[in-house]
Amino acid sequence: MTNLIQRMSRPAALSAAAAGSLVMTLFAGPSAAAGTPAPECVQYFQSWRYTDVFNGCGEAVAVTVEYTNGQWAPCRVIQPGERATFAGYGTDGNYVTGLRTCEPVATSGAS
Which domains does the chain show, CATH number per domain? Predict the structure, then answer.
């Protein structure tokens, strides 16, 4: 493999490395653990600093936010009529691409 990379032109090697990183992000990132798209009654409103998610459904939903750069976002359970705040897109233009259902991490109680 090292010989192959040494024989590749610099642009081709950089492209191959970037493609490998993208594949690893897609399979190992938070979106791999996320479920289906969130119901339409769950809406988001983004700004450069925050992304507010509102649950307009009649039941609680567990959602996470997907970003253009694959940034990690927690899975949050939002009750009907309530909001949750996630990171915004920031100064680098990392925009929200959608909301996905997810499985919240279970917390164990002390017994």
Answer: 1-32 (no CATH), 34-104 (2.60.40.20)
Strand bridging mode 61-67 / 50-55: unpaired
Bridge partners (DSSP) of residue 37 are 100
∠ at Cα 30 (5, 56), nearest 5°? Answer: 150
Query: Which tens digit of pLDDT belongs to each residue from 24-57?
Result: 333 334 433 568 999 999 999 998 889 999 999 9
Residue 79 sits at the vertex; the CA angle it makes with 108 and 43, to the nearest 5 degrees, is: 125
What lies within 8 Å, CB to CB, of 97 at 6+ separation is 66, 67, 68
Q: Which residues pair with 61 in a beta bridge?
A: 78
The end-to-end CA distance of the chain, in Å, is 53
Question: What pTM, to 2 d.p., does this model score?
Answer: 0.64
pLDDT at 107 over 90: no
